[in-house]
Amino acid sequence: MNYNTLNVTKNLLSMIVTYKSISKIIIVDNDSTDKSFQYLKEFTKNNKKIDLIKTNENRGYSMATISGSNTLLRIIALIIFLFLIPM
Questions:
Q1: Close Cβ partners of 65 (under 8 Å, ≥ 6 residues apart)
Q2: Cα separations (Å) of 16 from 6, 20, 24, 62?
Q3: Is this prediction's pTM over 0.85?
Q4: Concatenated DSSP letters for 56-73?
């Protein structure tokens, strides 16, 4: 989750995108007013490992976490569905 934490987010992303054991990264930008979202949008546009979500308003940490969790649940449901389709 990101809210006006551009430098911290840059440092964190530069480390975790290199981990081969991490296959999916979900970032929720909680309506940042600094340049965080613009940086994240540019950083993630060619990286299929990262899903970027932007909230329309800052609704707090809990709601941003729920937004990210909902995205993760859709990804998991799709994976389970694909495993259940007989080939």
A1: 1, 28
A2: 15, 9, 10, 23
A3: no
A4: SS--HHHHHHHHHHHHHH
The one-digit pLDDT tens for each residue of the chain (87 residues) are 767 888 888 888 888 888 888 888 888 888 888 888 999 999 989 888 888 888 777 776 667 677 766 776 666 655 554 555 554
Q: What's the DSSP call for residue 24?
A: -
**Dihedral pair phi/psi, residue 75, rounded to 5°:** -65, -45
Tokens at residue 35, please?
């340049």
Q: Which token pair is 14?
A: 């530069």
Place of tokens 């809210």: 3
Residue with tokens 């729920």: 66
